[in-house]
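Title: Prediction job returns without error message
Component: structure pipeline
Severity: low
Priority: P3
Assignee: unassigned

Description:
Job completed but the reporter wants confirmation the result is attached to the right record. Sequence as submitted:
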Amino acid sequence: MTRTPETLRVSEVFHSLQGESTRAGLPTVFVRLTGCPLRCDWCDTSHAFSGGAQMSIAAILEQVAAFACPTVCVTGGEPLAQAGCLPLLAALCDAGHSVSLETSGALDIGGVDARVSRIVDLKAPDSGESARNRWENLALLRPTDELKFVLASRADYDWAVAACREHRLFGRCPVLFAPVWDRLPPRQLAEWILADRLPVRMQIQLHKILWGEERGR
């Protein structure tokens, strides 16, 4: 089937608790789109790089509605790599859902519907993909968006703090610092944040605490 803006390659649609962002703990329907141009060293969703099923936006909306859950997160992979992501986000908003978008920040977020909370994952050096960061996105951030740094080391932490200060990100929108699972001890990151008096929110992947690496949870 030819891909058009009205159809998307979907890895999975599932109902779970949001494990990250300021929405952590909320029952959420996740629409995980297939494909990603990045290859982060610590990626935990490589299963979404390929495969999946071609679906129309109408079919996705129908599947989401079946869960009777108002909160929806479109994620990946890198969802903005598919042209159909933008109309999908708008359609989900039109259907009355509270919608968030998980994006790497390597692609332009400017076309995303203003009703969507854009959660931008700025890549730190240990990811191997920091050169792909689209710094122009930072000027587009609104108070309803969120900026996430996933950190694997002290070097990553220092880089993230410097980036926030250089680009005056503290106060622009919520800033989230998260440790790479099984790479940076959460307690260590917490101690750094407290020692430096940073105005950030630390997050730990709730879904992994509850269900480990189980797919669709």
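Comment from assignee: result matches the submitted record. The chain has five helices and nine strands.
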